[in-house]
Amino acid sequence: MIPAVCIEMLFGNISAEEKIEKLADEGFSHIEFWSWKDKNIPAIKEVCKKRNVAVANFSGQRLGDLINENTHHVVLEDYSNALNAARLLNVKNLMFLTNELGDEGIVVHPEESKSDYSKQRAVVRGLEKALEMTPDNMNLILEPLNTVLDHQGYYLKDLSTAVEILELVGDPRLQILCDLYHQEMMGDDLIAIIHEYKNQIGYYHIADVPGRHEPGTGAVNWNAVLREIKNSGYEGYVGFEYSPEEDSLASLQRVKDVWKSI
Description:
Elements (H helix, E strand, L loop, with lengths): L1 E5 L9 H10 L4 E3 L8 H11 L2 E6 L12 H18 L3 E4 L19 H17 L6 E4 L16 H11 L4 E6 H6 L4 H7 L4 E6 L15 H10 L5 E4 L7 H13 L2
Parallel strand pairs: 1-2, 1-8, 2-3, 3-4, 4-5, 5-6, 6-7, 7-8
Helix pairs in contact: 1-2, 4-5, 7-8
């Protein structure tokens, strides 16, 4: 397994390049982020090369709704532009969401009048179109989110529905981004889902519950969870995507400590 750290909520209001420098100083060699549009991609490429850091993942689309075919052209245009950034940074995983999110993660268009069936079919068709544009050596990772607290109105909230979408699309380049913070918030047994969905999960995210802070600040036994992920045969990225409860450097020490425990 490979640890990656999401830079978005760390170190306050400094540039992405400065955050990458700080993470490299702390011994991390893989990072991820959300949108590429608010960042200087050539500068990130340069600092990553200088510090021997790789970008594991970022958002393949932030605009448009997969659940609504009328906005698929927006999704695909956004994805096409993201692909250009991904090629420059040699990124092999791009995140997809079923709904566009606004400020504070609010779902912009819940489409409450649409049935779950019509939403699912639209998501499948949108992902099929996106995969037609996707290089063979790249994965799309589709993320379920919690609707209990953070993203009310978001369509894809459970792993079983995500698996149905993967099966309908039928392309091995489409996998699940299993965010264990979101799944814990939805009441899932984390140990159980690690084993039930191990063949469909292509990426993990971690943050503690409650609070979405660094591991060790909440109720989850991350030592046990990470050992289960490892024992399941998973060899990919585990992304630490959290808002630090303490200062950023102290939170990174917690990440290093929990990683050593496995």
